[in-house]
């Protein structure tokens, strides 16, 4: 049975993120997406262990990253990150309005709102596509075999969805860290596969590049 994304309370999500950033026993790749509070309850936080991550680059300042939460053939979540300029450590100020990357975040088989957080509705073939921008800080220059990078305060909002998808996040923020392996061919392959899966679930094309 496919394991759903984890919905955590604020304290648990913050602890998981801190452990990942400090290199503790948590997953080396973890992203937290935190929604806004609603009249019906506190903010929803979606945590994913993005242990499958690849990147491609042919420029010292630009790169494309594909991150998967779950098995590549049936991911629970996917994130496609485009870095369009690389900050320089100690020289680039990180300001609240600063952005150097865009992100497309795919959430597969979102839980039904009627069941409530923490109850798995199973894979109903639903999909929510969130999009936004934020700040990405690679810890080393691009081009190496592996690369560790941190996502800082990326804003997300629902761009489109399948008919039965329930948006529990609303306006959201993404934060976390991940380790990606460089493989241009694998990135191209995953983008094609995700584009096909997205088209099938939405019923119309939403290409990922």
Structure characterization notes:
The protein is 15% helix and 40% strand. The chain has two helices and ten strands; from the N terminus they run E-H-E-E-E-E-E-E-E-E-E-H. The longest helix is centred in the C-terminal third of the chain and has 19 residues, at 184-202. It is globular, with a radius of gyration of 16 Å.
Put the structure in a nutshell.
About 15% of the residues lie in helices and about 40% in strands. The chain has two helices and ten strands; from the N terminus they run E-H-E-E-E-E-E-E-E-E-E-H.
How many structural domains does the protein architecture include?
1
Give the radius of gyration. Answer: 16 Å
User: Strand order within the widest sheet?
Assistant: 4-5-6-7-8-9-10
Please outline the major beta sheet: 7 strands, mixed, barrel
Class derived from helix and strand content: mainly beta
Q: SSE string, helix = H, strand = E?
A: EHEEEEEEEEEH
What percentage of residues falls in helices of 4 or more residues? 10-25%
Give the N-terminus to C-terminus distance in angstroms.
Answer: 30 Å
**Low-pLDDT stretches:** 6-27, 110-122
Overall geometry comes to globular
Helix run count: 2
* Binned strand content: 35-45%
Number of strands: 10
